[in-house]
Design a protein that fits this description.
By secondary structure, the chain is mostly helical. About 90% of the residues lie in helices and about 0% in strands. It is built from five helices and no strands. The C terminus is likely disordered.
Length: about 90
């Protein structure tokens, strides 16, 4: 693993990237006919029905608690998503 990722931080960021892409796709899929908040909730519930995906999310959230760089990245994504959601909602 270290040969491929180099550092623990690189491994965490790769995990984050993979989960973020998957979650964004789930929100978009779940969002058909729903509000932005409804799509987020539907995607979150769906993620909990997939045991492997739920385990990866829990691991990532724990990592966010102990790794400041990962927590900062998560926070940036949430803030950017909120701005996008607000803009989309205002345009609708």
């Amino acid at each position: 693993m270290q040969h491929h990722f180099g550092t623990r931080e690189a491994l965490l960021m790769a995990l984050y990237d993979e989960l973020e892409l998957h979650f964004v796709a789930q929100v978009q899929t779940a969002g058909v006919g729903l509000s932005a908040a409804g799509a987020y909730v539907a995607a979150t519930v769906k993620a909990q029905t997939d045991d492997e995906l739920a385990r990866r999310w829990r691991a990532l959230l724990v990592a966010c608690v102990i790794d400041r760089a990962l927590a900062t990245r998560w926070n940036r994504w949430v803030q950017a998503d909120r701005k996008t959601t607000v803009l989309v909602s205002m345009e609708s």
